[in-house]
Amino acid sequence: MSDLSRAQAYDAFFDTLAALDVEVEMLVNNAGFTAPGPIETVTDDDFARTLQVNLISPVLLVREAMRRGHGLRIVVNIASTAGMNGRANWITYSASKAGMIAASEAMREELACKGIDVVLLSPGRCATDLRRTLAPDEDPSTIMQPAEVASALHFLCSNAGAVLRKQNLVLRR
């Protein structure tokens, strides 16, 4: 596990993989962070950390895998419906996930000629620890569960799911 809010984490992560002789064929970028609140309460540090974890780190992890010659076949980037339609008091999260959508679309275009598929998922409300931070009064049993997202991802990474990989896939219950 790596702390993706620190730039040094990428080298350490890939150095560890190299020491274990692990080849990365699939990379799932599923980290998420935010400190929700009204725009006037957003700190520079919270905004920077949200962008680092949710947008910059996923891109740099792919870059580092490419630089180190890993045989990537599939990159999965988890965005959010909050990146498609901004949410009040979630400005840093919405901005970072909108950036992840745009970066994934650019990555998909760039990496296609190398035989690398980029899968982009934008889940809606999902019962995660982050969701509890964003919507503390919400009953988690009434919304999508992480296992449902994992099942969709499993299908998308299968041969049968390949036909759905060329778009931002919105998952909602």
Brief summary of the model shown:
This protein has 5 helices and 4 strands, in the order αβαβαβααβ. With 173 residues, it is of the alpha/beta class. The mean pLDDT is 92.
Note the main sheet: 4 strands, parallel
Strand order of the largest sheet: 1-2-3-4
Order of helices and strands: HEHEHEHHE
| Distance between the amino and carboxyl termini | 30 Å
Strand portion: 5-15%
Structure characterization notes:
This protein has 173 residues and is α/β, with parallel strands linked by helices. It has helices spanning 9-19, 44-67, 91-111, 129-134, 146-156; strands spanning 26-29, 74-78, 117-123, 168-171. Strands 1-2-3-4 form a four-stranded parallel β-sheet, sandwiched between helices. α2 (44-67) packs parallel to α3 (91-111). The longest helix is centred in the first third of the chain and has 24 residues, at 44-67. It is globular, with a radius of gyration of 16 Å. It starts with 8 loop residues before the first helix and ends with a strand. The model has no long low-confidence stretch (mean pLDDT 92).
